[in-house]
Amino acid sequence: MDIKTKHLSVRKTARYATYGRLSENTKYFWFCLHGSQMQCEQVLYKFSDFDPAEHFVVAPEALNRQYLKGFGGEAVATWMTSRDRLEEIEDFSNYLTTLYKNLGEQVPASCKKIILGFSQGGTTAHRWLHHSEISAEVLITYSGWIPEDIDLRQNKTDLDKLKLLYTYGTEDVFLSAERMDMQKKVISKNKLDIEILSYRGEHKIDKGQLAFLFESYLS
């Protein structure tokens, strides 16, 4: 059979959620990428103790959706799969750049811009910054995997100009000691000046750790 697989770019409506009030009083602009099989709102619940007058948090939702349990239940989203991976990276990079720049242009000039990627969202953040030139002050990889298959020194976004933080829970089932050793080798290979901060916790965004990161490194 003479079967050919091709690709066609089309328009797609994306979904995102926000927390806080964007105004001249906004001091911190957060751009937070959720993990695999999550909804964008789930990230925002972690910011409930942050002052909405000073913090404006944006959580984009990934473009791929599925049911969490077979053919029913909650509809959740995932950034990329093994199918058409390069096309998916291109799609979500263009989507994130458009959303980030549209909202980022509305924040005060003095506002600190922070990108946070949790789990698969951490990998997504690094692939996005490799693909697109983005202006920010801080990148937090939270329990995510820094991709080993791209040269992060050739990013379109210069990581040397960002404060780089990596945080994870020591009881994270996806980040064993062996996995963290592999991750440190990726960091070393790419010569990233990144501070690694572990804490006692599982594979989730911990509100206490998030507050600690803000108070110790961002405020």
What does this structure look like?
This protein has 219 residues and is α/β, with parallel strands linked by helices. The protein has a single domain (16-218), classed as Rossmann fold (3-Layer(aba) Sandwich). The protein has helices at 40-44, 85-104, 120-131, 177-189, 207-218, and strands spanning 16-19, 28-33, 55-60, 64-69, 72-78, 112-118, 138-142, 163-169, 194-199. Strands 1-3-2-6-7-8-9 form a seven-stranded mixed sheet. Strand 2, helix 1 (40-44) and strand 3 (55-60) form a beta-alpha-beta unit. The chain is globular, with a radius of gyration of 17 Å. It starts with 15 loop residues before the first strand and ends with a helix. The mean pLDDT is 94.
Average pLDDT confidence is 94
CATH class (first level) name: Alpha Beta
Shape: globular
Stretches where pLDDT falls below 50 for ≥5 residues? Answer: none
Task: Give a count of the beta strands, DSSP E runs of length 2 or more.
Answer: 9
* Largest beta-sheet details: 7 strands, mixed
Helix content: 25-40%
Q: Can you tell me the CATH topology?
A: Rossmann fold
End-to-end distance, in Å? Answer: 62 Å
Query: How many separate helices?
Result: 5
Give me the Rg, rounded.
17 Å
Q: What is the CATH architecture annotation?
A: 3-Layer(aba) Sandwich
Multimeric organization? single chain
**What is the topology, as strand order, of the major beta sheet?**
1-3-2-6-7-8-9
The SSE order reads: EEHEEEHEHEEHEH
Number of domains: 1
> How much of the residues is beta strand, in percent?
15-25%
**Alpha-beta classification:** alpha/beta
CATH superfamily: Alpha/Beta hydrolase fold, catalytic domain
